[in-house]
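User: structure tokens for this one?
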Amino acid sequence: MLLVVLGFFLNWKFMLYFFPFYYFGHSLSYLNGYFLHYGGNPDLPIAWGVSSYHKLYNLTWFNNGYHAEHHFRPTQHWTKMRALREQLKVEQRKAGVRVIKPPHALGFLDPDLPKRGCVKATAPEPGAVA
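Assistant:
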């Protein structure tokens, strides 16, 4: 905060120019992070994140679309995410991992977007006592 005040004091014209871009950049970053997790299942580690397999998005953003896979195996190198996806595909379908068609920053354009507040019920663990 002190740097912002100091920046306005030293060069207020630059700060007036810079601030809208700074705000817009943070807004886009927040939007991206929101759709990386919106519709994920917090009760199942394999379904914590939401994935997008859009080829151009994953090519330009270092496989960031493989987000559910990243949450399940966070130490996996980004170049090996596609192979991890192939290994986990059956488990992910069983767990109901959410996959969106557009890149995460455009997640609001997904035709299968769940309504806010509607959380899918998870199946109980085998042998769990109700």
